[in-house]
Input
Amino acid sequence: MPSETPNPQHLTLRFKQHKTTILLFVSPHESFTSVKEKLLEAIKSTRISEINGNPLPSNPEDVILGVSIDKNDPSQGWMSLEIPEIEDDGGKKGSKKPGVLNATPSGAGLKDGMILAFKFRKEKSGGDDMDIDDNEWDVVMPSYEDEEGSQVKDGEEGVSQAEDGDDI
Output
């Protein structure tokens, strides 16, 4: 798939799993299936075959996307963008109406710069069915403590202490 030149209407979305972050430019009206294909293509282009022990799927439908429960605090957790299809009683018998969030980034209310978590469906050990656990999202967000701790040598404090009588 050739890469397209981003334009002002495109969204920059950040996709996270564990400590991996991937930036993608996507059209707000592009289907999530296409977004998942781009995500897998971007990961595979770096020659990564797994993320934190999770092998990459070959099918984009095995990628599950999630949004932060609290957009201002991603540490609160994630919820799946996939909404099960619901029966449409007003229409033909057996017809299903897809959820709004299943369609496009604009339909899901995604904004430029938003973070989306992603994970992969895993095969159940007993059969062909795929297993997903909506409560398990492997996303590690960097914190200030991580940054501060990386610059402090063993046995030192993060803030230097003034000795008695020294002016600060």
